[in-house]
Amino acid sequence: MDVQVSPQLRIPSSELGWRFSRSSGPGGQHVNTSDSRVELLWDIYGSKVLTDEQRQQLVERLGPRLTSGTLTVSASEQRSQLRNREIAVDKLAELLASALAPAGPQRRATKPTQGSKRRRLAAKGRRSDLKAQRRRPTHD
Asked: I need a labelling partner for 15 at 20 to 30 A (CA). Which of 69, 80, 115, 131 fits?
């Protein structure tokens, strides 16, 4: 089952690794006998379909999700292993597509408006008055 990330990028099934385990959740008597939880593994560094730029971009954007250069996606939403396989493939494709998407425009720094400054200070004053009412009254 190949993973179609974009029209230009398709990950062949030979680069994918699968692990199966028992899933928690619904399933009745069937849940303790079938390995319906799916983990899809893909080695980014060992992939032959990525360019060096794509590989670098994936490592930068998905760094915390990588374990020794391997990206793992799991699915255990459905009772069927086949359906969980399809969900895992979809999750991987979506994750890679978002990581390979070009970065959006940079935010231009702006100054706060006079109205926003006035509203912020007024809210701080109201909060200060509220807290002042909680204090013990003075003997004056």
From this structure: 80
Residues forming beta bridges with residue 39, ordered by sequence position: 19, 74
By percentage, how much of the chain surpasses pLDDT 90? Answer: 59
> How far apart (Å, rounded) are the C-alpha atoms in residues 116 and 100?
37
Phi/psi of residue 63, nearest 5 degrees: -45, -50
Tens of pLDDT along 58-89?
999 998 889 988 999 999 888 888 999 999 99
- CB neighbours of 23 closer than 8 A, spacing ≥ 6? 31, 35, 36, 37, 76, 79, 84
CA distance 125 to 118: 11
Contacts of 99 (CB under 8 A, 6+ apart): 57, 58, 61, 62
Who contacts 45 (Cβ-Cβ below 8 Å, separation ≥6)? 55, 69
pLDDT at 26 over 70: no
